Structure formats: C-alpha cells, structure tokens
Sequence to fold (206 residues):
Amino acid sequence: MTTLKVLALGVLCAALSLGATITVASTDVPKAILDNDPVGLTSTLIGPALTNLTDINLIFTELRHTSVADLHIALTSPSGTSVVLVKAFTEGGILTGLGTPDDFLGTVFDDQAPTNLLNGVAPYTGSFNINHASVVANPLSTFNGENASGTWTLFISDLANADVGTLKGWSIQFTGTGAEVPEPGTMGLLGLGLAGILVKARRLRS
Fold:
C-alpha cells in the first residue's frame, strides 16, 4: 500500500472515530409526580448510535415541583445499568435540611460541574454536580463505556407528604464515539483533507 493510500485510510478512520456530542429529548412528557408515591413515574427517550460513551449529562428542561427535596431520581441505560442520582430528604439525600425548594428549571446534572447541587439555589438553573454521600461518586460516569443506542429510562418518585409536581421536559446530552455521522463542519474538513491527498497524488504522477 502506498503512503498516500495509507494517509487516505487514516483520514477516513479518524472521521469514523471522532467523538460526538448529541442531545436527545424525551417525547412522552408531561407526566404527573404524585404526592408520597413510591411507585413513581417513568419516562423514556431513545439514545443515539454512539457505541462508547465518555460522558452524559441529565437535563431537566422543566420539572415543576413544590419541593424537589422530596424526589428520588434514578436513570437506567439500555444495557440495564440503573443508577440512583438523587435521593429524597426522607432517605438522607443531597437536599436534606434545605426546606422545600421549588423546581428544576434548566437544570443540568453534570459530574464535571464545579458547583454542587447542595450549594445551588432553587430553581437550580445551571449545571451542578450531584456528588453526595447518599449516592455513588460521580454517578453519571457509571454509564461511561456503554452503548448509548436504545431506551433510556428516567424514574422519579415523591417520597414525602404535601407536595406534588409535573415533569414537563427532560433530555440527555450524550458524548461518545461510534457510528454517528460527523457534523457538516467535520465532513468539510474531511473532504479538504482527502482533496489535498488526491492533488498531491496527481502531482507526483505528472
């Protein structure tokens, strides 16, 4: 195989292995969060064709609730991995002792965020890590290395009296590698690279 062919193959392989970040929103909301209901609710979304996850963030576009400290929140991947992200104050969770903070509006659970949810202010708009002794460290990183493709299931239950709410919008931001088609800008760079190789090949032949 000539050097030019090797270079072309390398460019193609690099394109196929490029990382991508894709956000997918659930379409089965809104769903009611009933008062003191351990059965809770489930909501789903279909993950993209990323075969090796390197990071995920859970986004609550709009979760209305008169006391989010009451909520137990867990996420399950298509592979069946289930991770508790937040426990209710009745379980000694991260918002224990903070009263009845309202709502998650534009709230991003992100293991890499510098601010802990405990130090946030309702309605917790922005990015927060959810590290706390009541759950595993960096809980969202548990999904790293898994295949994103398939059904992701969000579970929410209210485990205290007197407050109710509605899950109106949520999504997951996936980062990983795999079969996803590169972004247009990346495709343009790939095209330029291949064109350069072809031009060089023609010059060498002439």
User: Anything to note?
Assistant: DSSP finds two helices and ten strands in the chain. Residues 47 and 149 are 5 Å apart (CA to CA). The helical segments are 3-17, 184-205. The two ends are 20 Å apart (CA to CA).
